[in-house]
Amino acid sequence: MTPKHSSISPAFNRRQLLASGGAIALTAAVPFEIRHAYAADQAVPAQHIPVAPARLPLVGAGHPQTAVLAYSGSVPGPALRVRQGKPFQAVVENRLDEDTTVHWHGIRLPNAMDGVPGLTQPPIKSKESFTYEFTPPDAGTFWYHSHDNSLEQMGRGLAGALIVEESEPPRVDRELAWVIQDWRLTRGAQIAPGFGNRMEAAMAGRIGNTVTINGRVPGSISVRAGERIRIRIINATLARIMALNFTGHRPVVIALDGQPCDPHEPARGRLLLGPAMRADIVLDMGGEPGSRHAVTDDFYGDELAYTLVQLVYEAETPLRNHPLDAPMRLPPNPLAPPDLATAERHEIALQGGMMGGMGMMGMGGAAWAINGMSMTGDGQPGMPPLLEFQRGRTYVLALKNETAWWHPMHLHGHSFRVLSRNGAAIDDAIWGDTVLVEPRQTVEVAFVADNPGDWMLHCHVIDHQVAGMMTVLRVA
Questions:
Q1: Per-residue pLDDT tens for 376-401?
Q2: How far apart are the C-alpha atoms of 344 and 326, rounded to whole Å?
Q3: How far is it, in rounded angstroms, from Cα 53 to Cα 45?
Q4: Is the four-CA dihedral 295, 298, 299, 304 of positive or negative sign?
Q5: Cβ proximity of 469 and 369 under 8 Å
Q6: Contact 239, 204 (CB under 8 A)
Q7: Beta strands in 186-341 (DSSP E)
Q8: Residue 372 class from Cβ within 10 Å (0-12 exposed, 13-18 middle, 19+ buried)?
Q9: For the chain, which domains are there?
Q10: What DSSP designation does 464 have?
Q11: Is the pTM of this model over 0.90?
């Protein structure tokens, strides 16, 4: 069953916002068109990323600026572009009045760089800095976000795109990045209080009433007939699951969670992305000059469907009369193939929540559990591992959702191959670091435990994580 979207606030709902003229063109927001940043022989400079409060015009003209938390003064943070197989360094300076860390989501990096407070590093104290250093082995679309007080820090803006460039990118005319966030705003365009509401935590989590792309409520994107566009889409929301429909167009998925896949159109034309999930798509712009086409999100049903953004065709003549004749397939990443014949198998039971036996009655604020155990918060020292894995061996995890709610399950430090859903094999090679598990569904994933350390496995509906749906897997 699909949970009802019960947290659209009457104070500032999206339809009222768009009708009021609050929407603005994306060109006024954080730049969304991206180009390859560095020549092959050019060193990538170290990044300095201050974390501090800011006031930014999320909603646009006619509304006050919103008090947020920002990386380098922007929401989302700067789009970091690095090269596959080349060292990356970022000095994160904490100018908040509380601890923070940064998790480099989806990157197969050394455990000490993973950004989980207590478990992999001490938290970055106020007025202190921490230097993250790693060499990304995979090209693709990744992202970074707070992993300390993550429900509130992410909910107030701390997220950004991390793009690892391919050595041989596909030929396109333009490349865009969409970092999608949602916010629960008051009539005064300020972030509403109430993070950690226990009823929401036991249900679908904190879903906002205002959706932004690259830090602004989007109005339209100008496109040209005949061009081919690559869009890197990052669902950086706390809890919102999205089903994107590109009206009048046929998106082709070329990567999921940063990992290349066989180019394919999404099932029923709807691109389904849970929190933390990413997709790279290619769009051939086949519309007529002067036409408009909505990108809509209807995951929560027709009643709560809305237009995310409009694709508006320029009036000029088409760039070309036929789709670009160029391959879309991305070069593979160096992932170790799982050896299913020798794999060790484990069942991971996802438990609790409203209508799931725990509700709001769990111990220590826990509403969720994994295999009967609840770990709450964002990470702390001495977290005992649920399972211990032998380095280099293949493991299959059967993620069994015993709850009435959806869970995007994220494994740190590894990518896994999705094998089956409810026993039905998935023939295509679909890899990811976050997999969306429907209510009462079992999803099997396989991976080679080739990255040593204590790694989190948790639901990326952040309310679910901090209320108990989190555990640790040890690779030694």
A1: 999 988 899 999 999 999 999 999 99
A2: 41
A3: 25
A4: positive
A5: yes
A6: yes
A7: 210-213, 220-223, 228-235, 242-246, 252-256, 259-264, 270-273, 278-284, 292-297, 306-313
A8: exposed
A9: 14-165 (2.60.40.420), 174-313 (2.60.40.420), 340-475 (2.60.40.420)
A10: H
A11: yes
